[in-house]
Amino acid sequence: MKEVKLKINGKDVVATEGMTILEAARKAGFRIPTLCYHDGLTPHGGCRLCVVEVKGSPRLLTSCTTPVADGMEVYTDTDRVKEARKFVMNLIMTERNHFCMFCEKSGKYEDTDCELQKRAYEVQIEHFPFPVYVDKYPVDTSSPVMVTDHNRCILCGRCVRVCSEIVANSTLDFSFRGSKALIAVDTGLSKGKSSCISCGACMQVCPAGAIFSKFGGYKSRRSLCERIETFCPICGIGCETTNYVRYNNIVEIEGNGLVKGSLDGGQLCEKGRYGPLMESRNRISTPLLRDSKGRFVEATYEEALNRVVQLLKAYSPDQIAFRTSSFLPAEDLAYIKEFASRIGVKDIDTFDGNVYRNLSSFKLSKGTYEDVLNADLILLIGGDIVKEHSVVGSYIRRAVRNRGAELVVISSIESKIDRWAKEVRRVAEGSEGSLANDYKNKIKSMSNSIIVLEGASLLSNKEAIEPWLKLAEELNVKVMILTPTGNSLAAWELGISPDLADSAGKSKKLLFLFLGDIDSSYSPASIAEKGYETIVLHSAYIDAIMKLSDVVIPGKSWLENEGTYKVMDGKARRFSPILKAEKGVKSPRELLSDLADAMRLGSISIDDIVRKL
Ligand code: SF4
Ligand code: SF4
Ligand code: SF4
Ligand code: FES
Prior knowledge:
Elements: E1 3-8, E2 11-16, H1 21-27, E3 51-54, E4 61-62, E5 73-75, H2 79-95, H3 115-122, E6 139-140, E7 146-149, H4 158-166, E8 172-175, E9 182-185, H5 201-205, E10 211-213, E11 226-231, E12 240-246, E13 249-255, H6 270-278, E14 288-290, E15 296-298, H7 301-314, E16 320-324, H8 330-342, E17 347-350, H9 354-359, E18 365-366, H10 369-373, E19 377-382, H11 385-388, H12 390-403, E20 406-411, E21 423-426, H13 440-445, E22 449-454, H14 456-459, H15 462-475, E23 478-482, H16 488-493, H17 500-503, E24 510-516, H18 524-529, E25 534-539, E26 551-554, E27 563-566, E28 572-575, H19 588-598, H20 607-611
Parallel strand pairs: 1-5, 16-17, 16-24, 18-23, 19-20, 19-22, 20-21, 22-23, 24-25, 25-26
Antiparallel strand pairs: 1-2, 3-4, 3-5, 6-7, 7-10, 8-9, 11-12, 12-13, 14-15, 14-26, 27-28
One iron/sulfur cluster binds next to helix 4 and helix 5.
C-alpha cells in the first residue's frame, strides 16, 4: 500500500493510503476523543467530537472520516479544537436527559461505564451552560433482554451500524429528524415485537445509558468487577467473551474482538450473552440418598461415595451404563471414559453421541465463516439457526445482503432466517435427506457453495443427514457442522461411544449419569423409558430425573468448571472458569478420582489423552 507522509502536532508521521487522520494519529500515539466512532464499524462522522485542525482548511475536520493526504499538517490539541469539542459535548449533554446521577451507567471519571460521561470528563464539562432540553422520549422495555431508553440516546448510530454491518439483521434505523429523531425498530415496532434476535450487539456498542441489559443493570459498575476473558462453550462455536463478575455473580458478558478486519469478532447470541444471567434453576446443594422407604435423605459426600462404590460392585460391568453430557470439558469426558474402562464398563455414551458417528465415515471439507461470506449458494439444512447458532446466521445474512448469495432453507421449523432465503422448503423432521439430490445440479452450476447442517435432530438422524454428506463428498462442497452442544467433537474423538456389540440386546440395570448443566439433547423421559433399576446422578441443577435417581451428587456448572473444549474450527481451547464453585461441589473428574481412590483403582491420568485433542 502506498505510503502517505504527513505531520501531526509537528511530528513526522508515515501512514498508508486510505487511513483516516484518527487512525494515523492513534498509530503515532496521539489521543483524539471519539464518540460515534467504533473500531469495528464504518465511520459515521456524526458527533463531531473528534474534530482536528488541518492547515489550509478553514473548517475543523472530523478525524474519523477524513483520509490522510501527503503533506497534510494536522493539529489535534489546539485551543480552537478543545473549544469546539467542549461545545459539541455541551450540546450533546443538554440535548436529552443526561442527569447522570439517575443513570444506570454513571460513575466517576474512569469508573463510569458510560463512554459519553467519560468523554465529558475528558473535555472538562463541569456544568451545563445551555438550557437542558427535557422532552420526554419513550422507554422501550418490550425486549426480553434489554431496555432502550431514548432519553439517553445521543443518536450516534453505533447501534444502527452494528445491527446492519455485523449482525446483518438491519432491525434498527433512524426515524424523524432534529429534536424528534429516534432510533427506530423495524420502522416503528417495539423491540420485543420486531425482527430483533436479542443478540445484544447494539447494547454492547451503545456509548451511553440508552441500551442496557435487563439482567446486569444496576448490579455493579465494571470497575468494581473482576474481568475474566474466556470463550462461550454453549453451542460449540466458541465465541470469545469478557465476563464481568462481582461477588461471584456475573454482571455482564461481552463479545470480544469487535474491531475492523476481524472476521469473527464481537458477536454473541442471546444464549451466550444473557443465558448465564437468566439462569433460574435451583442448584443441587447437598448429596442425597434414597432410603429404604423411597425418600431422599441428605448425606455427606463420603456417605454418597460409599453408596456409589457399593452399587458399582453390586452390578456386573455389563449391567452398567455411563451417560454423559457432551457439554462437559474434555478432561471430564476423558476421565469418565478411563474410569469406565478401568471397571470394565463398555457402554458409555453422550446424549448426542451419535452426531459424529453419522459423520465420521465421510471425508468432509470443513466450512469456515469466510466460506459462508464468499458463498454464492448456501444450503441451510436443519433446525432454527437463529435460535441455536445465531452468530452463524449473521454470516449467512451478510453473504445474502452483501454479495447476493442464494440462501435455501430446508427445515421442519420456521425461523427468522427464512425471510432472507430465496427458497424455503418446509419438510417433516427426519426427511431432509430426501431433498439432497434436488440440489446437485444447482451446486454444480455455482462456483462457491456451502452446506450448513444444524441441530441435534438432523445430525443424529442417519437417513436425514447421509444424502447431504454424500453429496458434499461427491461434489467437494464445504460443510459446516453446527452441533447442539459445546464439546460433541471432543467427546467423539475421545471415544465416548458405546461398544455396540457389548450393548446389543442387553438391558442395563445401573445408570451413572453425568448431567453437567444438562445439554439440549437431554430428555428425562427417554432415560426413564430405559427402565434402569438404579440411577446415580451427578448434576449441577435440580431436574426431573432426580425423581428417578437413587444417589444424587452435586456437580459444578460449566461456569465453574475449567477445561478443554474442541470448538467449531477444530481447535482445542482452554475454558477459564468464570465463577467459583461452592465448597465440596465437584466436577465429574474430581468425583471419579475420589471414587477411584475409594475403590483402589490406582491413579488415572488423562493429561496425555487430552493433550492429543
Ligand atoms: S448516558 Fe452517560 S452521560 Fe447520559 S446520563 Fe447516563 S451516565 Fe450520564
Ligand atoms: S439485539 Fe441484535 S438484532 Fe436486535 S436490534 Fe440489537 S443488534 Fe439488532
Ligand atoms: S441507542 Fe446508543 S448506540 Fe444507538 S444511537 Fe442511541 S446512543 Fe447511539
Ligand atoms: S467520532 Fe468522529 S464524528 Fe463522532
